[in-house]
Design a protein that fits this description.
Helix content: 25-40%
Number of strands: 7
Order of helices and strands: HEHHEEEHEHEE
Oligomer: single chain
Distance between the termini: 38 Å
Radius of gyration: 16 Å
Length: about 160
C-alpha cells in the first residue's frame, strides 16, 4: 500500500475518471494551452452540465493533466476535444485517455464516433489512426489560426459495434 501511495503522491499513477464542476478552470487552462482558440471555464461548466455530454479527466497523481469531451446523439457521438498537458505528451497517456473514453461511450450505447482533426496535426492523427479511426471526409479551411491562416480538417469515424 505504501508503494501505491508514494506513486500517487509523486504523480506516477494515471487515472481516467469523470470530471466535476470544480475541474472546469483546469480544463479551460489545458484547452487554451493546446488549441489556438481555447474554450473558457464557463464553456466547460456548460458542457459538464449537459446530459448528452461525456467528459473525462486524465489525472496523474493529484494533478489533472488531460481531458476528453464528447457529445452524444442517439447511437452516435462526436469527440469535441482531447488534450494532454504538453509536459506529459509522448508517453501513451492520450491513448489511455481516449480508449477509456471510447469504452464509456460504448457503455452508453454509442455505436459510431466522429471527430475532426487538423490535417497537419501528426501526433493527433497517429493517436486516432492507432485507435481505429478512418478518414471519411475533409473540410477545407475549417480551422482559423490567430494569424489568419486557415487549415484543413479531416473528418474521421470509428464504429464501436
Amino acid at each position: 500500500m505504501m508503494r501505491w501511495l508514494s506513486e500517487w503522491w509523486r504523480g506516477g499513477t494515471a487515472a481516467v475518471e469523470p470530471v466535476s464542476l470544480r475541474d472546469a478552470a483546469r480544463l479551460a487552462q489545458l484547452h487554451g494551452a493546446s488549441f489556438a482558440q481555447g474554450w473558457g471555464e464557463a464553456e466547460f461548466e456548460n458542457m459538464m452540465s449537459e446530459r448528452n455530454t461525456l467528459v473525462h479527466r486524465l489525472r496523474l497523481g493529484r494533478k489533472i493533466i488531460g481531458f476528453a469531451v464528447s457529445r452524444i446523439g442517439a447511437d452516435e457521438a462526436e469527440i469535441l476535444s482531447v488534450a494532454v498537458d504538453q509536459a506529459h505528451r509522448g508517453r501513451g497517456l492520450s491513448r489511455t485517455l481516449l480508449m477509456t473514453h471510447l469504452g464509456h461511450l460504448a457503455g452508453r450505447g454509442v455505436r459510431t464516433i466522429f471527430l475532426e482533426v487538423e490535417e497537419n496535426n501528426q501526433p493527433a492523427r497517429r493517436l486516432y489512426d492507432r485507435a481505429g479511426f478512418m478518414v471519411v471526409g475533409r473540410r477545407e479551411r475549417y480551422y482559423k489560426q490567430p494569424n489568419g491562416e486557415q487549415l484543413n480538417a479531416l473528418l474521421m469515424r470509428r464504429d464501436l459495434s
